[in-house]
Amino acid sequence: MQNSNLPIKTCCLRPEGRIGSSLKIKKLIASTAQEHVLNLSNLEFPARSLTSIVGRSGIGKSTFLRAINRLLEENPQWKIEADIEFLGMPIRAPKISKEMLRKCIGLILQEPCVFPFSIKKNLLFGIRSAQKLKKSEEISLTEELLHKVELWDEVKNRLGDNAEHLSVGQKQRLCIARSLALNPEILLMDEPTSSLDPDTTFKIEGLIQNLSKERCIILVTHNPEQVSRLEGRVLEFYRDDSSMGTLARELRDEKAKLSRALTFTREPETFITA
Amino acid sequence: MAISGLAKIKTKHVLAFFAEHRSRASLTRLIALIVFGSVIFLSLGAFIFLVWKSGIVLRQEGPSFFLEANWSFRGNSYGAKALFLGSMITAFLALMICAPFSLFGAWALQNLRSEKTRFSIEALVTLMASVPSVVYGLLGILLLRPFLLQIFSPFGMETGDGLLTASLLLSIMILPMLFSLHLENFSKISKKYREQAFSLGLSRTKFFWSVVFPLGLPAILSSFALGLGRAAGETVAVFLVIGRLDNKLPSEGGWIDYLLNAGQSMTTKLGGPEIFISHQSPTHESALLLLALCLILMSVGTSSILLKFSKGEA
Amino acid sequence: MAIAFHRFCQFLLIFVVALALALFSILIIKGIAGFNLSFLIEPMANAGLSGGVRYQILGSLILISSAALIATPIALSFCYCFQNLSPFRRPLITLLHALNSIPSIVFGFLAFLFFVIYLSWGKSWLAGGIILAIMITPSLSFFLIDSLKALPTKYTETTKSLGLSFDQRWWKLYVPLLLKPYLTGLFLSLGRAAGETAPILFVACVFYGAGLPTGIKDNPILSLSYHIFQLSQEAYDPQAVSRLWASALLIVLIVLVLQTPYYYFWNKKRKGSQHAKLKLTD
Q1: What are the two backbone dihedrals, phi and then psi, of residue C156, each rounded to the nearest 5 degrees?
Q2: What are the chain B neighbours of C64 within 8 Å (beta carbons)?
Q3: Nearest CB to A99; choose among B3, B14, B21
């Protein structure tokens, strides 16, 4: 993909051209009618990095991801005040359509969602609606993407088969490849390996680590071992008694990284806020 | 400095081609809106047309359209009381006959232990609901009519066509629909409370009268209302067995004579030959349009009450 | 006392079942006598007293096919508007429920005034197709809307995250996925339309004298339901009676064939959902 010469117009930036910060969250306050959920400020996600987000269940990690790709605001229950910059541009600017933003920010869910179409059609689903590809371009893109997610050998002879017959691990890799087809700047991942067995988990963690060399990856996880296996920043989402919503802080300490991923305690500790 | 320069290039580049894909207009949306708009326009137009044209006969007849039974297009009088009465009586009678069978029969089916038998009976009743009304009309003419004539001729039935025949036929027609609705209702309630009730020692009958019936009453009543509406709107089957005789009222010869002999209802009037000649006289046409308007108001009114009711329920 | 009530209910149930069985048995027994190949293939002769019902069958098929072709884009448009234009949802649903509840004869009468008198089309098969389409559109639209609601929400979330606009989602995801359920719903409605007489009574049908249509104006059509309707009003001739039963059996068979896919899938879904409910607790 680094050396791909395909005229993929969606996200214009080649990996070599990615520098600076992909995402700057100056302010993100999200609340429903019942409670204040998110109260984040001054978070920065550099290009070509891996950031793991940990925190207890229900604290708003998934909400955070969906606020970034503007999926949250489609639900009328949410009130959002956000000052988020993507590539130096505010994401709510009228010039940018939601659809274009989402093509540059991919989202991988916990449960891989494949449509009841063929593997090839699933893979090319996103890119086909972004631009017209020639037959030859489609074929080479398919091969390239499947090689990248290490799925090529397993499915190369049955690209026309229904994708629902794949195993969960294969489906998840297919979903990642599908998002990669759009060459996104940021990949948001919401517990991508929770439903997978250990072997597949390792494979995908390796893939994520590789991807973080060329894109900004924001990963939500519950697994402390995963946090320790992956090299990158770790952000913890937490709540104070006085805070209106979830705050975030970076964890630098190795032990804290391990324990915090499953934390329920509320010890006050001094950490450097990102 | 160099970094900020590169950052600037990035922003411009990205902005430029973000701006390409802005427009929300699309051909699909346009076509869908046109179709939707035209249907609304046509429906409203038809309704306004109905209301407008009905005015003519109302101006001529006034309230006697509803209160007098002297419909005669040749004599230019349009009292439709007999028609309203005919529709209402056949529909109500049909419901009354059908109600116990659908209600208690469905309860008996709900209590059936064998899953297979239950499924077959359900399938059978659903099949019965698919039978077209014209076939029911045929059955009415060829079977029901002579059968009733045999029974009721000592009571004064002359031809076998009449309101009673129509009511019986209608009750057979709405039976499958009511049966399925009640079955669904009972099934929902029964699943929820069955175990509790039986472990408290309630018999099935007590369970029905203390739990299922009270809880299911709103749904039962709305099913009945649906059945009533269906019966009142049925044309073809009723047309064939009602006799189509205008201006009969129970006050003339008593209720027995009224029910056992030929009559007319709103739908059968609208399904009859008068439609073809109506356009020769604006008053005649207007009278028929007013009948149609009344039918529409009754059916739409019933369905919106039912809708509000079931929404309030849920 | 409790037992008495229970027996009473069972007795009523037996009555209902007996009624249904009797209905179908009579239909089959009396209908099968006149049911042979020539009945299906021959055109009608002698004002219905002999010959077959070839053009009646063809006429009914033409009517429901044109109804399907006209109703499908309308129902799709309604579904699209329901999904995409949320301020219009309430009026749309209200309109659909209102249209759904109107008796069929009113449609027939209004269609007569519009097509035969106002447009001077005379009796026309196309008018019949249009009015049947209007009649089945509400239930088709409801069916589409419910099928769309039944699609897993993660599909919508995933396609949105891939940056697809509503139109793209509509054509690339929803429509292909809705195709199969829509067809079953369509055939269900067509089965109902095949049995309808009232709407086409004035605008499209004649008893004899029409073959296949050659144009739009003054091109009436024969229909199996209208055939039964007219013939049953002159049910004194025993020959006519035997043909009546055969036609009745035929129309019931046609309706059942059209409606079977729906009931087959509906039943599978019912059984399937029970299984799904069990799975959730594992």
Answers
A1: -65, -45
A2: none
A3: B21
Residue A193 vs residue C217, higher pLDDT: A193
* pLDDT recorded at residue C8: 92
Q: What is the mean pLDDT of residues C15-42?
A: 88
> Chains B, C: CB contacts under 8 A, how many?
202
How far apart CA A191 and CA A110 sit, in angstroms, is: 5
Percent above pLDDT 90 for chain A: 27
Q: What is the pTM of this model?
A: 0.85
Bridge-partner residues for A31, per DSSP? Answer: A36, A79
Q: Give the relative orientation of helices C2-33 and B115-130 as an angle to the nearest 10 degrees.
A: 50
- The whole-angstrom distance between residue B146's C-alpha and the CA centroid of its chain comes to 28
Q: DSSP state, B311? A: H
The residues near C280 (Cβ < 8 Å, ≥ 6 apart) are none
The set of residues, in sequence order, having a beta carbon less than 8 Å from that of B16 and lying 6+ positions away, is none
Report the pLDDT value the prediction gives residue B248, as an integer from 0 to 100. Answer: 84
Ranked by mean pLDDT, the top range of A85-99, B12-26, C102-116 is C102-116
Complex ipTM, two decimals? Answer: 0.89
pLDDT at B6: 44
- Written as six digits, the tokens of B200 are 């408290």
> Over the Cα atoms of chain C, what is R_g?
23
- Phi, psi (rounded to 5 degrees) for C185: -65, -35
Q: C152 to chain A: which residues are within 8 Å by CB?
A: 113
Query: Does the CB of A101 have a partner CB in chain C at under 8 Å?
Result: yes
Write out residues 64-83 of C within 8 Å (CB-CB) of B: 73-74, 76-78, 80-81
Neighbouring subunits of A (3+ Cβ pairs under 8 A):
B, C
The torsion angles phi and psi of B26, rounded to 5 degrees, stand at -155, 160
B120-130: per-residue pLDDT in tens? 999 999 999 99
| Rounded-to-integer distance, Cα A129 and Cα A127, Å | 5
Distance CA B92, CA C4 (A): 28
Which residues, 6 or more positions from B135, have their beta carbon under 8 angstroms from its beta carbon?
C27, C195, C228, C248, C251, C252
* Residue pair C76/C88 in contact by the 8 Å Cβ criterion: no
Torsion on CA atoms A10, A13, A19, A24, rounded to nearest 10:
-10
Q: What is the pLDDT at residue B166?
A: 94
CA dihedral A243, A247, A252, A254 (to 10 degrees): 90
Q: How far is A175 from chain C (nearest CA, A)?
A: 9
C103 shares contact with chain B (CB less than 8 Å): yes
